[in-house]
Amino acid sequence: MAFDIQAMRAQLQTFSSSKHTPRFVLFKGDWCGDCVRGVPPTKAVIVAAGLSLVEVDVGDSETWRDPNHPLRVDQQLKLTGIPTLIEWTENGPAVKRLGPELESASTAAEVERLVTAFVVEAQLRAAKG
């Protein structure tokens, strides 16, 4: 399955203009074991906090493993692994992200702890304005 970066950009452009902050983008793949383990608790934390989330499927395994995958070479994103959770601002991706930490988390509880801390930090930044 080919990855459609133009469709993703259009979706994220609309998302960026949302007044609801903080907002998050979760890059994932249904075939990815780390995603199967990490995505449900990540979504649960964000939904429980009443925050906005867009999920982006990176494509099938073969597509994602291509070193020239659009998300790997994108100047703003430069993804190296999945799952990756990025705080999304009106200007695009924030510097802060959870990637390798989610990949290496071995339990749902560990993912939940990491994501909760990440979300709280983002909420504090948003409150400061």
Task: Describe the protein in words.
This protein has 129 residues and is of the alpha+beta class. Helices cover 49% and strands 19% of the residues. It has a single domain, classed as Glutaredoxin (3-Layer(aba) Sandwich), CATH 3.40.30.10. Strands 2-1-3-4 form a 4-stranded mixed β-sheet. Strand 3 and strand 4 form a beta hairpin. The N and C termini lie far apart (40 Å). The mean pLDDT is 87.
Would you kindly provide a brief summary of this structure?
The chain has 129 residues and is an alpha+beta fold. The protein is built from 6 helices and 4 strands.
Name given to the CATH homologous superfamily: Glutaredoxin
Poorly predicted regions: none
Give the overall shape, derived from the CA principal axes.
Answer: globular
Question: Which percent range fits the helix content?
Answer: 40-55%
Going by CATH, the architecture would be 3-Layer(aba) Sandwich
Give the integer mean of the pLDDT values. Answer: 87
Termini, distance in Å? Answer: 40 Å
* Distinct helical segment count: 6
Going across the major beta sheet, what is the strand order? 2-1-3-4
Kindly identify the CATH topology.
Glutaredoxin
User: Rounded to an integer, what's the Rg over CA atoms?
Assistant: 14 Å
Query: What's the number of extended β-strand segments?
Result: 4
Tell me the major beta sheet.
4 strands, mixed
CATH class: Alpha Beta
